[in-house]
Fold this protein.
Amino acid sequence: MKSKRHKELPKPTGRPLSFDPHKALDRALDVFWRKGYDGASLSDLTKAMRINRPSLYAAFGDKEKLFRKVLDHYAEGPASHSRAALQEPTSRAVVERLLYGTADMLTSDRNPRGCLWVQGALACGDSADSVRKELISRRLGGEAALRQRLQRAIMEGDLLPDANPTSLARYIAIIIQGMSVQAASGATRSQLRGIIDIVLESWPSRRNT
Amino acid sequence: MKSKRHKELPKPTGRPLSFDPHKALDRALDVFWRKGYDGASLSDLTKAMRINRPSLYAAFGDKEKLFRKVLDHYAEGPASHSRAALQEPTSRAVVERLLYGTADMLTSDRNPRGCLWVQGALACGDSADSVRKELISRRLGGEAALRQRLQRAIMEGDLLPDANPTSLARYIAIIIQGMSVQAASGATRSQLRGIIDIVLESWPSRRNT
DNA sequence: CTGATTTCGTACCGCACGGTACAGAATAGA
DNA sequence: TCTATTCTGTACCGTGCGGTACGAAATCAG
């Protein structure tokens, strides 16, 4: 039971924070996104976050804890379209929104190119190994969520009953991860949309749902 | 004109090399493949290559030059199936061999999981920036070679004339790069083959070529 | 043998890394 | 104002990084 600060009782004695943790996370996200976990140094981070090193450690723990907080921040912010897409009424709408939304995010001028889940720590030194595994886990988790959504779609009848939800979810995951690499290589939004059109043409949805 | 040593005149005076550069490159490849350019330290490399640091610098130049030599070694060795696949007689055979060959390589027990071109330096620190750009260039080069092969296939009639070679080549590149991320996440060979089946089902080849 | 040449192994360089000690500044409650 | 508490900024720690100086060892030509 380690409840440092309750929202309903903001009675902070002592010197107040001189920065907005939310903004600081935003800026840390930008650095990790561009350089990956290993490539982002503490100097890069503190400079971008406009705080000193001890403030970072007091507010976020060490580098790895900061990265995990940044991952949550990313999931709730720039990557929130993924979770939202699963709520579309049909499997085709889910996949459409998932892919187009991802393509938009990957090529937005407001973000670095690519996906933090993919680029954050793909191949890295030993010191980043736990972070690498964390990202693998998150990628597989997203894939599993899509698989369950496709299974539901089969039961609801808008996906052909002989479709394989596991393979289809992995196929879409591959498209997303491949698009991420493409975005990091300089692919444009319209180029990615052209690929999505190819993917959707063969989507095994029933009727025209 | 810097011809250090001609093959036909191996008259090396001085102390002979105590290691096989080819084997050493093999071992360096393994390290870079698993850890990426930034994540592989010189200590990792010299330990794996079983040579001392000055020997490495004398034989291969600095770390970046070694990495570029390793890239060539990779292209001619584990990744040689890519170039070979382009010589298949039809576009469908090209893509089949390209994808299945890649899936085999990505999940071979003899290699680290994933593709060096993708994982070598996707997001990294500033010091690896030129290496990152080199890998982007190689990825785009491979994609361009496939595009040209598909254009030839249209002229030869085994690919539907309204197919878009640029988009199709990018689509296959995305599949390959996505499979690389999947392999790094632990996907098995049969799982990747399942995805390839999905891709090939909608390949726009004429007749059953 | 001697001498020229090239590689080998140790031991080291400056530097940037992630992480922290510590003293002073800013607030709240008394 | 005084005290307790928390945050800020400087200055530093040990470590590992990429890269190298240098003398010993190994070969060949003569």
